[in-house]
Amino acid sequence: MIAVIDFDIGNINAVVSMLQRLGLKCQITTSSQVVEQADRIILPGNGAFDACMRNLRSSGLVSVLEQRVLLHRVPVLGICVGAQMLGNGSAEGKELGLGWIDMEVHRFPMLPNLRVPHMGWNQVKATLPEHPLSEGITQDSRFYFVHSYYMVPKDSDELLFQAEYGLSFAAGVVRDNIAGVQFHPEKSHRFGKQLLKSFSRWAP
């Protein structure tokens, strides 16, 4: 069962709908007991970094998430701001991130003809093509993005996916059983389905 963490950050039904279309058992939850029983965890995110971190900490789920992810090595996938929350912090705010991956989050630079936020479809390249989460990712794979900030992992070996928007940026990161994607797989049609299917089979 995949636990989709609900910390009051907007509509996460699209994530559940996509998982259900794939025939995957999942549950939106605010319950520690459900997280303790989950085989996998999805940390969605929508909105401002600080608000998301405050809401997650107020939910009381951080300790059980740390136990499941860091101790029991349950696979976790962060989506958009949920991926950024896996790092140390963000230039968007002052709150500390979860610190599960050593990375920072920067704002896209102010460049001529570069509209921020980066919104819409963009091509994604697998920088770790042999990784199980890269299965099915080809040069034609495109995902849907909505973001003004991007992840910068300290270790280049933790760069899973890459995309271009004024500069090359991390579209996905991974460390052991912890992964995050900047795009929205739940809005990315067959490409998103492939990514979530790979996540459901991932056994780090």
Low-confidence stretches: none
Q: At the fourth CATH level, what is the homologous superfamily?
A: Class I glutamine amidotransferase (GATase) domain
Cα radius of gyration in angstroms:
15 Å
CATH architectural type: 3-Layer(aba) Sandwich
Sheet-strand content, in percent, reads 25-35%
Largest sheet: 8 strands, mixed
How are the strands ordered across the major sheet? 2-1-3-4-12-11-10-7
Distinct helical segment count = 6
Estimated helix fraction: 25-40%
In total, how many domains does the architecture comprise?
1
CATH classification, class level: Alpha Beta
Helix and strand run? EHEHEHHEHEEEEEEEEH
CATH topology: Rossmann fold
**SSE-based structural type:** alpha/beta
Distance separating the two termini? 17 Å
Instruction: Kindly report the average pLDDT value.
Output: 95
Query: Can you tell me the overall shape?
Result: globular
β-strand number: 12
Structure overview:
It contains six helices and twelve strands. An eight-stranded mixed beta sheet has the order 2-1-3-4-12-11-10-7. Strands 5-9 form a two-stranded antiparallel sheet. The protein has a two-stranded antiparallel ribbon with strand order 6-8. The protein has 204 residues and is of the alpha/beta class. The mean pLDDT is 95. It has helices at 13-21, 32-37, 49-59, 62-71, 81-84, 189-201, and strands at residues 2-5, 26-29, 40-43, 76-79, 103-107, 118-123, 125-126, 142-147, 149-153, 159-164, 168-175, 178-181. The longest helix is centred in the last third of the chain and has 13 residues, at 189-201. It has a single domain, classed as Rossmann fold (3-Layer(aba) Sandwich), CATH 3.40.50.880. β10 (159-164) and β11 form a beta hairpin.
